[in-house]
Amino acid sequence: MKLYHGTNLDISEIDLNKCRPYKDFGRGFYLTEINEQAMNMARRVARIYGGSPIVNVYEIPDDFLYSTELNIKNFGKDPSEAWAVFVMNNRSRDFKDFTSPDCNLDSKYDIVAGAVADDDMAMLFRQYQNKLIDFETLVKGMIFKETNSQYSFHTERAVAMLRKVGVIYE
């Protein structure tokens, strides 16, 4: 399987310490199987930080989500209540229960797979957290939203499964 990472750098070595915290699935290296999604992210990163859009291409065994050697959390392609709670907890600077299975702030999961919480999703989360909508309304809002997918790699053991096979320049 090919996975793509959109950025403004040709990444020679993945350094998890350079990954930002408070992302959907916690601090990690994020990829997608959708090349266009990665290129859109690369354009966004280049617009913000300068440089040119670059997509780093990796290969990984097709069955990697079924590895028994890694702790993997797979939400599937569609948003769910469990996914929403997980994303909100990982994005929150106030959430402190790192041992909870409903977060990955301590990188307890080597790999997490699931939908992307885009800006529309983030707005729903803020409305829920500010008590402007209830949880049922949050979930209903997610159901009608078409999402993209992402795979996040949180440990060196997980990153070791990725083999870089190329770079796409815009």
Description:
The structure is a single chain. α3 packs antiparallel against α4. The protein has one domain. The protein is an alpha+beta fold. Helix content is 29%, strand content 21%. The chain is globular. The protein has a 4-stranded mixed sheet. Strands 1-3-7 form a 3-stranded antiparallel sheet. The longest helix has 15 residues. The mean pLDDT is 92. α2 links the parallel β4 and β5.
Structural key phrases:
alpha+beta, 3-stranded antiparallel β-sheet, 7 strands, 5 helices, globular, 4-stranded mixed β-sheet
Summarize the model shown.
By secondary structure, the chain is an alpha+beta fold.
Domain module tally: 1
The computed structural class is: alpha+beta
- Cα-based radius of gyration, to the nearest Å: 16 Å
Strand content: 15-25%
Largest sheet: 4 strands, mixed
Intertermini distance: 22 Å
Order of helices and strands: EEHEEHEHHEHE
> Whole-number average pLDDT?
92
Which range best describes the helical content: under 10%, 10-25%, 25-40%, 40-55%, 55-70% or over 70%? 25-40%
The spatial strand order of the largest sheet comes to 2-6-5-4
Overall shape: it is: globular
* E-strand count: 7
